[in-house]
Amino acid sequence: MRICYTILIIFSFACFSYAAETKHIVILSWFNDGSAEDGFRDGIISRNIDARFYTFGSNSDMGVLEKQLAFIDKLPKDLIYANGLLAASALIKRFPETPIVFIVEDDPVKNDIIASKWRTMTNATGIDVSIPLLEELLELKAVRNFEVIYFLDGSQTNKSAEKFREMKRLGKYLKFDLFLIKDIKNIQKHMLKPFNKAKSAAYLAGSVSSETGTGIKKLNIPVMAEKPEMVVKGYGMIATVVDMYRAGRLLSDKAAAVLSGETASEIPVQTIRYFRLVVNLAEAERINEDVPLELLLTALDIIR
């Protein structure tokens, strides 16, 4: 099967900066060109920077990423934008002399692509958009003050195991008991007896099939989903998300600083502290759960 990808070249010229040197900016997303990239480009353009963008999307395919890296080798580049941990890691290693700004959904220090968030000791800086588990649990607590939460492990990865351990640690602060369920397909036989729905909630880690999702719905309790697409499908009631357009705009601030002469390694990595929700109101109504108005006002997407 032939893999095809498109190179999108966008020219933007500031109204009164014709004499300024054109900045060549490479944009590489591990995913596809999306709202984060839109926010970044808009942020650069709004600063009247005479910029030429070369935009690539890898569609989460390592083979495509490698081909794009080879092509980027041949391009002029004053700055590189990376979206995704794999893209950022590959770019930092491959282009150590080119300043890089990144957006990653995993801790860049823990994943060893920078030394620290205060001083990266590399040619890169950026934004960490990982969502703290505490933030997710507080949003779920705002819907129902649960005393028991079931951790539905749909991915069974090291990351989900780490999240389970963190949830167990947080239990003493938020005052809940935690139960791990790996065999989600046969979820009903794992539930505690007697099962008190009024004091229970669930957290769905990862993604599940439609058959498994149907079984989760039968619990008739509020479910916080790690993946917003699970809420869209009705297998969860709420999910915490980042406004990626806003993240892109914030990253453009760092890019502008680098293009004006600041050293990327001296610009601290920023951690996003403002989150939005995806809410499935139809699912809330089905289980007779009221979603507080203040949560709906922060929703990025509401499914009715």
Question: What would your notes on this structure say?
Answer:
The chain is α/β, with parallel strands linked by helices. It has 2 domains: 8-130 and 244-271, Rossmann fold; 133-241 and 276-303, Rossmann fold. 34% of the residues lie in helices and 23% in strands. The protein contains 10 helices and 14 strands. The strands form 3 sheets. Strands 1-3-2-4-5-6-12 form a 7-stranded mixed β-sheet, sandwiched between helices. A 4-stranded parallel β-sheet has the order 8-7-9-10. The longest helix is centred in the middle third of the chain and has 17 residues, at 158-174. Keywords: Signal. Residues 1-19 form the signal peptide. This is ABC transporter substrate-binding protein.
Topology:
Elements: E1 8-12, E2 23-29, H1 35-46, E3 51-57, H2 62-73, E4 79-83, H3 85-94, E5 100-104, E6 124-128, H4 133-143, E7 148-153, H5 158-174, E8 177-181, E9 200-205, H6 210-217, E10 223-225, H7 228-232, E11 238-241, H8 244-259, E12 270-271, E13 276-280, H9 281-286, H10 293-297, E14 299-303
Parallel strand pairs: 2-3, 2-4, 4-5, 5-6, 6-12, 7-8, 7-9, 9-10, 13-14
Antiparallel strand pairs: 1-3, 11-13
Helix pairs in contact: 1-8
